[in-house]
Amino acid sequence: MKLTEGERRNPLMATLIVGWTEELAFLRVRNDGPLTHDETLTLRGRIAQMKVLIALGDKPPVIEE
After folding, report:
1. 2, 16, 34, 45 - which has most CB atoms within 10 Å?
2. 45-63 pLDDT tens trace
3. Euclidean distance between CA atoms 2 and 32, whole angstroms
4. What digits encode the pLDDT tens for the residues 25-42?
């Protein structure tokens, strides 16, 4: 998914990124605790999902031809 410059600059996006960043930090701390193999896999999936969401706020890289 790609967002426009206006969508990335929207104040709501900034608020969402703050929330996703806090959730990512929480998940990382939880991942350091004792978990079963299945719990670890699930948690790593959620961590990857948070990283994708947070990256929505990044400017897309400039690709020169």
Report:
1. 16
2. 999 999 999 999 888 777 7
3. 32
4. 999 999 999 999 999 999
Using CA atoms, how far residue 23 sits from 3, 11, 50, in Å, is 22, 19, 8
Closest CA to 2 of 61, 64, 48: 61
Contact yes or no for 60/11 (Cβ under 8 A): no
In angstroms, rounded to a whole number, what is the distance separating the alpha carbons of residues 62 and 64? 6
CA–CA separation, 7 and 63 (whole Å): 21
Let me know the angle formed at the C-alpha of 43 by 23 and 19, rounded to the nearest 5 degrees: 10
pLDDT one-digit tens code per residue, 2-12: 888 899 999 99
Tell whether the torsion through CA atoms of 38, 44, 46 and 52 is positive or negative: negative
